[in-house]
Amino acid sequence: MKQVNVGLLGYGVVGKGIADILEANHQLIAQRTGVDIRVTKALVKDLDEVQEKPPHIEITVDPYAIFDDSSIDIVVEVMGGYEPARTFSIEAMKRGKHVVTANKACIAAHYCDLLAAAQENGVSYLFEGSVAGGIPIVRAIRDSLTANNVRSISGIINGTANYILSKMTDEKISFYEALAQAQKLGYAEVDPTFDIEGIDASHKIFILALLSWGVELDFNAIYTEGISNISPIDIELARELNNKIKLLAIAKECDGDIDIRVHPTMVGEDHPLYSVDGVFNAVYLEGDYLGPAMFYGQGAGRYPTGSAVVSDIIEIARDMACDIAGKRIQPFGYHTLRKARIVSIEEIHSAFYIRFTVKDTVGVLRDISRILSEHGISIASAIQKERGIQADDSVPFVIITHEARGYDILLSIREIERLDFCTEPPVMIRVED
Amino acid sequence: MKQVNVGLLGYGVVGKGIADILEANHQLIAQRTGVDIRVTKALVKDLDEVQEKPPHIEITVDPYAIFDDSSIDIVVEVMGGYEPARTFSIEAMKRGKHVVTANKACIAAHYCDLLAAAQENGVSYLFEGSVAGGIPIVRAIRDSLTANNVRSISGIINGTANYILSKMTDEKISFYEALAQAQKLGYAEVDPTFDIEGIDASHKIFILALLSWGVELDFNAIYTEGISNISPIDIELARELNNKIKLLAIAKECDGDIDIRVHPTMVGEDHPLYSVDGVFNAVYLEGDYLGPAMFYGQGAGRYPTGSAVVSDIIEIARDMACDIAGKRIQPFGYHTLRKARIVSIEEIHSAFYIRFTVKDTVGVLRDISRILSEHGISIASAIQKERGIQADDSVPFVIITHEARGYDILLSIREIERLDFCTEPPVMIRVED
């Protein structure tokens, strides 16, 4: 039986998971691939960080012990971060090694370089583990939805943010209390910025957009808004409206341009993502012929992500058995990518939830609705709460608009917040059907 | 650009859908494959059945006009039924043509012959459209969950049965009223036997089991129970228990044997399949490393099924571009299949809902619980309804058991139904957590 050797760059949570899976399910994987796949080397920063020395794996601090080892066929980059992940991946590809990664940040920042290295060296570059952990959404778009123009994608693709929002909803606690719980359980990192500010989700939706439309996009043009400003008042008001607040990553094709963004979003109880709670992830999408579909599962963790990475290793091993690894399919499933423009968030139409904090006086609804109407915005519903929710004698006054342009909403909010009765800056959250 | 020609066996609902998709998304598919894919011929039974002659497709009544056409690379069998589907598929493969199908009945009955023909002739045999329509569950198991021992699969994979049960639940109507509505809307065929008796679902779960475990199974040993005996009383009692009755197809691996069955099942509101209603399908599964995952979408119809079939055509076209079509992967994702035993339904443990119809006398609970207890069955809850639900003065008496062996349940029911107070045969429905 042909042997395929794997070198791991990184032997942390996911790296160890990959080694565990390849060992525990070694025979099953051999039956599926006809190939004997083994991890032979693993790169670490410091030899002392490895508590238990794995018996069949050589641990090294020298990346070139992996790059220059001609017996290694596949290099798995699970170090995280931008560098040296990018350089190491390219070094490995230059030496004819196939590369598998779960590092979304590195792909989002450096996909052009990484793609070029894969093509120039005729090797595979696969990244199923980079989006939504164990959910096989990368391969679904690249291989299974290929008959379709993907119309739209909405995903809950950051488990940390979803856990925090679920906790805030279920236990009526503040963002910081929920974050502390998430950190205690290991669901949030000590520096949680990437997760709670939506950056991780924007890396992932960027990858899904490339796969769906074969487009080159400017990552920095993605509108990204996190959840650290979400207050319990809005969670509670959402509940009264039979809605939940979720951090959604959204991408849609609009006449060749791409609407792509990450922001807190109110979703109603009929929305397929409404009941995706805790650390679970889900991707809901629509294809022109497929119609709607949803993929649900564990979005992170040693074994779900390990399962995805190993599926990529197996794909390469199956291709290697036919001597066509790196030749059969392009990393994003398109032969060439086209440049596409990202639609500005201000141009995007949606319904909006807007919470004003107002002194409880006559004429609030009249003045607000006049200004909205001057900007062409119509109100679907309004709720005025009685006093006592806020510390002072202000009250929340909430409106849900019909579909309106982001720019018009911004202009009207700026105008309304200058009115005397507004005591705090308004809060605005987009609403998805 | 290399041209790949497709011949359709069958130009009905799905056949026409495939031709439509390949024409409408021709350019997109070329960008994804680097190949120009066209339907050039279609086989029909009778030339008069084609209302609108498609401009670029030659319609024929002679299958050999397709088999013997050396310009045709891929034959798509969408005729349905066992024969001549089997013979035609094998004839095509003998002539070196790759075959794609959506015909689950033919696969379930003849997979050995079909697999042998694919292997002997070195061609691809793909069937993504055969299970759950547009949901890419075949490729998910074959290519994406490959690192995992699949632990269990539960699916709502017959849209007709799910539509009927959803209607019965929502509108409190009888099975036959709901069936008539389904037929009126085209969701059920004139002869609905395959759908309502669970046979179609058993074809599909059989295919998923082969993919998951690489096993040869005796299709006829699958326990298959349909929904035609489900009464509105049980639907209503299920609702009172916060349950719904769903036709589930279930497969689990049990120490090398396979537990595989199709039957009406009560699922609680926390079950991931609880909210899958109407014609939608979903497959929920667990892998040892992946954990739980769910795939949801449209399980039938011209375009969802067409989307799946075209994804198989694209896979073959991508492989053809590397000259490895038929060589890269085995149809079920395993190099060899092993024979496995199907666990008898009587050996299977689960919780049970049992509805007795009893005369409202003293000692009912005492006698029933004594007999159950003698068979080692413990009661989780019991509900006795007041008079007036049944036409006579009988009342339904319902118990939910803790986990128990099917055989013990059968023995106790036989004993209990001989008691004087039982006025009708008991009704038994399995309960899944």
From TrEMBL, chains A, B:
Biological processes per GO annotation: methionine biosynthetic process; threonine biosynthetic process
Signal peptide: none
Binding positions for NADP(+) per the UniProt entry: L9, G10, Y11, G12, V13, V14, G15, K16
Keyword terms, alphabetized: Amino-acid biosynthesis, Methionine biosynthesis, NADP, Oxidoreductase, Threonine biosynthesis
Domain ACT: 353-430
Substrates-to-products reaction catalysed: L-homoserine + NADP(+) = L-aspartate 4-semialdehyde + NADPH + H(+)
Classification via InterPro entries: ACT-like_dom_sf, ACT_dom, Asp/hSer_DH_NAD-bd, HDH, HDH_cat, HDH_CS, NAD(P)-bd_dom_sf
Residues of the active site: K204
Coiled-coil features, chain-numbered ranges: none
SUPFAM superfamilies, per database record: ACT-like, Glyceraldehyde-3-phosphate dehydrogenase-like, C-terminal domain, NAD(P)-binding Rossmann-fold domains
Gene Ontology MF terms: homoserine dehydrogenase activity; NADP binding
Residues holding L-homoserine: E189
A Pfam family of this chain: ACT
UniProt record similarity statement: Belongs to the homoserine dehydrogenase family.
Name of this chain's protein: Homoserine dehydrogenase
Lineage: Bacteria, Pseudomonadati, Chrysiogenota, Chrysiogenia, Chrysiogenales
